[in-house]
Structures are given as C-alpha cells and as structure tokens.
Specification:
This protein is of the alpha+beta class. It contains three helices and five strands, in the order E-H-E-E-E-E-H-H. The structure holds coenzyme A. Coenzyme A binds next to strand 2, strand 5 and helix 2. It comes from Gelidibacter sediminis.
C-alpha cells in the first residue's frame, strides 16, 4: 500500500452552537463537542484508510476555553500517524470572532480509530508520511501516546512500553 500524506485525510467541520447544545452557563456542552469531534475524526480516519472505521479510544481532550452560545466552531481533523490497523487523529478546535473574523484556538483533542472489515475485524491501512514540521512533531509523539493508551486500557504491560520507560521507572 502506498504511503499517504496527512493532508489527504483532512476534515474541516464548521457549525454553530445552538441553545439546545449548551450547559447552564450558556457555553457549549462538553459532550456535544466530543460528539462533533468524533464525527470529524472518523471522516479523517476514513479518508486515510478508505475503510470502515471505529473509535477505539479518546486519548486526550483539553477543554481550555469555553465556547459561548452562538459561536461559530471549526474542527480541523487530520490523521497524525497510521500504525498497522489503527490511526491517531489530531484535532484543533477554533472559534471565530463575529466582528473581526479572527480565529482563536479553543481546544485540542486526540482520538484513535481502527479500520475494520465488514465483520468488524481490524484490517491493514496505508502508512503516513508527515510533510510539515507540525505533522512531523505529532507523528513522532504518536507512538508514545499509543503505548500510553494501551497501558491505560490494560492492553499492554508497562514494562513492554518501550517509549514510556522513563515515565514508569
Ligand atoms: C477497536 C477494536 C476494533 C479493536 O479490536 P481488538 O480486537 O482489540 O484488535 P487489536 O488488539 O488487533 O487492536 C487493533 C488495533 O487497535 C489498537 N488499539 C486497540 N485498543 C486501543 C486503545 N485503547 N488505544 C490505542 N490503540 C488501541 C491496537 O494497538 C491495534 O493497533 P495496530 O494494529 O495499529 O498496531 C475493538 O475493540 C472494537 O470493535 N471496539 C469497539 C469500537 C466501537 O464500537 N467504538 C464506538 C464506541 S461507542
């Protein structure tokens, strides 16, 4: 399978925050953002693999900034690393100022997806070749994050997590 570039997987989703999607402080409800990110990330994973994909793990979400009612929210999702059957998808979330149109970073998130066949069995995906400096940085760190996720899920022994030894010793 030929290696692909992260840009081939990009998914950009822009949507409004409506009243039914807010918490009592009139800011976007966290679970609503998680669901929107899951959709954007699954499209990016599907574009990279051209397979059915399922969410295997939500590895990291940072709710750094509140997102007020009426905001225009843009989620940019891109595959940051592809392993054998799984992919890490990195997301940047932006909000747009109504008057100036300037964008401010609101959140970041990292999800893991697995490509599966029609019976739900994991299936092989193309490799990824990072191009930009940011893509290279995210690619490099992805193996560490995968191992951490597997250790936390009880699917890998800490002693086997070669990239994490410094954290666990
Ligand atoms: C995700 C799923 C397909 C993995 O199946 P599995 O039998 O554990 O398969 P494997 O052990 O071969 O793992 C497949 C890949 O996923 C990776 N993986 C599995 N769990 C992971 C986790 N928690 N974090 C990171 N990667 C994980 C494995 O490392 C492996 O990666 P690789 O092939 O790229 O090296 C299976 O657990 C599943 O179908 N889960 C439910 C998915 C779902 O319904 N999601 C929506 C939730 S509502």
């Amino acid at each position: 399978m030929q290696a692909k570039h992260p840009s081939e997987s990009i998914c950009i989703m822009t949507d409004l925050v409506l009243p039914s999607e807010t918490n009592p402080l009139n800011n976007l409800f966290g679970g609503e953002l998680l669901a929107r990110m899951d959709r954007a990330a699954s499209i990016a994973a599907r574009r990279h693999s051209r397979r059915i994909v399922v969410t295997a793990s939500v590895n990291h979400v940072a709710f750094n900034r509140t997102i007020p009612l009426g905001s225009v929210v843009t989620i940019e999702a891109k595959v940051s690393r592809a392993f054998k059957t799984s992919m890490e998808v990195f997301m940047d979330v932006w909000i747009e100022d109504r008057e100036s149109g300037l964008r401010a970073k609101a959140n970041e998130a990292i999800y893991t997806f697995v490509a599966v066949d029609e019976t739900g069995r994991p299936t092989q995906i193309p490799e990824i070749s990072p191009q930009t400096e940011l893509e290279k940085t995210r690619f490099e760190a992805a193996l560490r994050r995968k191992q951490l996720s597997l250790v936390l899920a009880g699917k890998m022994k800490a002693q086997e997590a070669t990239e994490l030894k410094a954290l666990f010793q």
